[in-house]
Write a sequence for this structure.
């Protein structure tokens, strides 16, 4: 014996447009069709991101020093200067707050 619901719309019926071209979903949620102009417009945020990527790609770091610090941490030889960390943290917070130190 097979039991089916006859009152519920099938998947195909739920996704097909109704009369007048409107889908069952809210018309506010409908997206306009994409045009084939071949143009892309980037936001100001993407422009800023590109500037930051350019800025940081030009900065250099000492790979040997990074390796040395990594090894010192792994071997338990790395000593943290808590006073220097605190001073730099306070200076950074003051700079973010707009104050000079």
């Amino acid at each position: 014996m097979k039991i089916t619901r006859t009152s519920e719309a099938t998947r195909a019926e739920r996704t097909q447009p109704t009369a007048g071209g409107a889908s069952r979903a809210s018309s506010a949620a409908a997206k306009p069709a994409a045009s084939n102009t071949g143009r892309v417009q980037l936001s100001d945020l993407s422009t800023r991101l590109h500037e930051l990527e350019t800025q940081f790609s030009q900065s250099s770091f000492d790979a040997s020093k990074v390796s040395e610090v990594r090894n010192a941490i792994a071997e338990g030889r790395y000593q943290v200067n808590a006073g220097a960390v605190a001073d730099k943290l306070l200076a950074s917070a003051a700079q973010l707050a707009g104050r000079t130190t």
